[in-house]
Amino acid sequence: VVEFSMDAMLNMAGNAGDSIDTALKLLYKSVFGKETVTPLTSIKYEQGLPNLTFSVVKASTIFGEYYDGVYAKDWSLTAPGDAPVTQSFSGMGSDGSIAGIGVLNGAVVASASIVLDPDHAKRFEQDARVMLVDADGRTIKAGYDGTLAVSSVDVGTETVVLNSAIDAADNDLLVFWHPGAVQQTGKDAIFTDLEGSIKLTAGGQSICATNIELALVNDHIDLSNCFGDDANKGFAAGNRATWTLSVTLDLSNENMGDLVQARKFGGFTPEIIIGDAASGRYLKITAPSWIVSVPAIELPENGTTPFTFEGNLYQSSPGARDPIEIEFL
Question: Residue 139 to residues 95, 133, 151: CA-CA distances in angstroms?
Fold first, then answer.
């Protein structure tokens, strides 16, 4: 059973409709369920039944881990008033494997079976992705595309059997597959500017918020408790998803009316924009209904009077099924 969590900055670049990384698109589609791409216009995500899994690679300078059958369950976004926007994904996967670095003990010709130096075979697990690298530590001889994998390991004989035959010289290196070493095509425009706005109603005025937190929890049922099997079989979307939004404000004449509406459980239709909607890429988040709890107000000895609107996002009315939308424009 695999569990994962990953933090990321907001990263948007290029043309609308192609402004976020492929890897992040997989995460968004997995956690939200429905993706609609309109070329040169937008990438939009709405709540739907997730039906995909993907693979994840985690690599450093001395090891690589490889997970399959992965799916994202939960997502959160934090937009403070004085720092860059961040987001977090978490979820589960089926199984994983790990690989380190080993030195070949002897040359091989057209063979899938290789012998490593003493105590090096135990650095590899079955199904881990690997590469064959020259003794210079730089030249990749095989496995650059991630297709070379470990089929079996015998630590007693220091033998590693691969899924494909290779040619290798003595003292060549068997190393973990690191896609970053050969594939560097991601977006590189991390959003760090404090540009954006929030409205409590789509047609209303922008308000001054000191912190915004949005979270989605997909209450999936993980099929990870089968007796006699330590692998996760996937998930069943057996419960409803829960969206929560929290917005912190400083009390003022401009938002006093909103506070009164919240005390009457009137609800809002929030619109959040992160980025430059006038001249650049931006993220737009809208919801048909936001019912907040009555906020508590504490009087400080001095300074401003902060309070927080917090509650769940809903459809506009029972049966309406109008979606909460996450749209990259």
Answer: 30, 6, 23
Cβ pair 20, 11 in contact under 8 A: yes
pLDDT digit string (tens) for 102-131?
999 999 999 999 999 999 999 999 999 999
DSSP string, 54-67: EEEEEE-SS-EEEE
Q: In what order do the strands lie in the sheet with 33-38?
A: 33-38, 42-47, 325-328, 282-286, 271-275, 196-199
Decide: 152 and 181 in contact? Cβ < 8 Å.
no
Mean pLDDT of 4-10: 90
186's CB contacts (< 8 A; 6+ apart) are: 21, 23
Give residues with Cβ within 8 angstroms of 72, minimum separation 6: 27, 30, 31, 50, 89, 90, 91
N-terminal to C-terminal alpha carbon distance within the chain: 37
Q: Please state, in angstroms and rounded to a whole number, the distance separating the CA atoms of residues 33 and 311.
A: 22
Q: Are 124 and 130 in contact (CB under 8 A)?
A: yes
Residue with tokens 């509650």: 311
pTM of the model: 0.86
Rounded to 5 degrees, φ, ψ at 257 are -65, -35
Contact 230, 1 (CB under 8 A): yes
Select from 323, 254, 272 the least CA-distant residue to 10.
272
Q: Which residue has the higher pLDDT, 115 or 230?
A: 115
* Burial letters 186-199, b for 16+ CB under 10 A, else e: ebeeebeeeebbbb
Distance CA 12, CA 32 (A): 19
Cα–Cα distance, 183 to 180 (Å, whole number): 5
Given a contact cutoff of 8 angstroms between Cβ atoms, the answer to whether 301 and 320 are in contact is no
**DSSP classification of residue 293:** P
